[in-house]
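Our platform keeps sequence and structure together, in a single record for each protein. Such a record has a labelled line for the sequence and another for the backbone structure tokens. This encoding replaces a full spatial description with a residue-level series of whole-number codes. Below, we set out a record of this kind in full and without editing:
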Amino acid sequence: MIPDCTTIATDPKRFGFHVELRRLALSILALACLSQARAAPFAYVPNERSGTVSVIDTASDRVVATIKTGGKPRGIAASPDGRRLYVSDQPNGSLVVVDLAAREISEQIPVGKSPEGVTISRDGALIAVAVEENNSVALIRAAAPRELTSVRVTGQNPEHAVFSPDGKWLYVSAEDGAVIDVIDVAKRSAVKSITVGERPRGIGFLPDGSRAYVAAENSDRIYVIDCERAEVIAVIAAGKRSNGIAVRPDGKVVFVSNGGDASVSAIDVASGKITATVPVGQRPWNMALTPDGKKLYVANGRSNSVSVIDAEAMTPLRDIPVGEAPWGVVVR
């Protein structure tokens, strides 16, 4: 006979069993919720004047931690497995490695004078650092033992060095120049220079690697490069002092930050036209999208904040206070 509820409630053994079962179920639920919370992407923001990295939970859009790096953190990249951050430290001429589980520095790698932009290849094998005062790019093997190769470029004061999606090429922008240097990663050498507008800064590739978009700050233009031919095929008028570039994961929209206009514009890739512009904080700089492409995070260098934009509707969502002089964002 199946016991009724009264029998279960008054039988000490059965009552205890059900209490333990309920506790187990609640524990499993709590662990599932914690796992989901940890799985949510985080936005990491280097604050140049604070010597810190702000950690933003993209689910709540709140700063949940601050990592002390010291120096002047600028460029930032995250390993594909989400275990490490790589942050350039300008005055100390080093690449700072941050253990994200402990949220503390685990290593400092000397790279040269005044390092700036940092990127990592899609497979996580190589890290590239633009080293301004050396007019070079440091290529570093991510796995131990470390191996560093310095590649000279023609552009003066390189700012960004960005891997193509297939990892075969690095496109390098230079503050004091009007060229993009192309580095053959396998050969560890610069093989071509592509003429663009004055003071090229941000670089972004379409996911298929067919095109690269370059923001030329002093020209207020975006230069579109055919990557197979390694030449400019279109020029798009942007806002004042255009600098940061981010590409939506589906490859349909390219975002550009306009430092002089305190705005971000969206470029439709198919038409090559700007379809929307939204206001953000002062001196918007580098940007990053969430993996699903739904939200765009913009570092506002003079507002000490990060603006969050609905990347589909192109509407501003909120501003998040961070440290002083945020330089960029990486989302992982």
